[in-house]
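Supplementary Methods S3. Complex input for the 3VV-bound model.
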Amino acid sequence: MAKEGTAGVAQGDHGIAVQDRYPDDFAWCYGCGRLNPAGLHLKTYRDGEETVTAFRPRPEHTAIPGFVYGGLIASLIDCHGTATASLALYHRDGHRLGDPEPVPRCVTASLQVDYRRPTPLGPELVVRGRAVEVGARKVVVESELYAGGTLCARGRMVAVLAPPSMTPGAPPAPAPGT
Ligand SMILES: CCCCCCCC/C=C\CCCCCCCC(=O)SCCNC(=O)CCNC(=O)[C@H](O)C(C)(C)COP(=O)(O)OP(=O)(O)OC[C@H]1O[C@@H](n2cnc3c(N)ncnc32)[C@H](O)[C@@H]1OP(=O)(O)O
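Predicted complex, serialized as structure tokens:
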């Protein structure tokens, strides 16, 4: 039986958020790190062939009174996208959330946001995403952001598996050209 998530939709992968399975060293992101006390704590769930997240902006997320700051919208699309990419790589490798294997961590290589309508401040925002290309290390993710059912923004991003040299505690990467 699927559980109900914050977005009010059925969750897959045992109803576990991708961000709750990132290794601790990778769980400090301002947008989605569960260990960042000042962060947004975005949670991404599987919903069939898509992913979904929900976030209710607060008054400090104002652009002009009554409307949401575009940088917040980009953050939601960004963090939901990297999580969608991580989940796609995890699935490709035959895993499901809840398996003991660590969930891979992706970083943003490219992020495009199309702001289609002013986003009202008040309703919960829902972002739906999907991996449209899954390569060895690179995943292209497309997404849409809705406010009260109205499409307000679209995103397209390239997410890349964090190289081992980015892992905290790893030896520094060699300088370019060496
Ligand atoms: C967090 C910053 C890093 C600090 C390290 C802290 C340690 C903790 C580690 C992890 C925590 C994760 C926390 C995530 C937070 C959530 C999301 C964010 O806010 S991320 C912040 C903004 N993003 C960056 O700062 C990336 C800066 N860029 C890079 O480091 C590199 O450029 C990187 C890793 C993205 C790619 O470098 P390559 O040397 O590993 O790999 P190549 O061969 O260049 O690219 C792989 C594939 O991606 C494509 N690609 C790369 N950049 C692209 C671009 N801009 N547009 C389109 N495709 C691109 C390439 O064409 C290639 O594709 P083909 O496999 O050949 O098909």
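Residues 26, 29, 78-79, 82, 105, 107-110, 135, 137-138, 158, 160, 162-163, 166-168 surround 3VV (CB under 6 Å). The mean pLDDT is 90.
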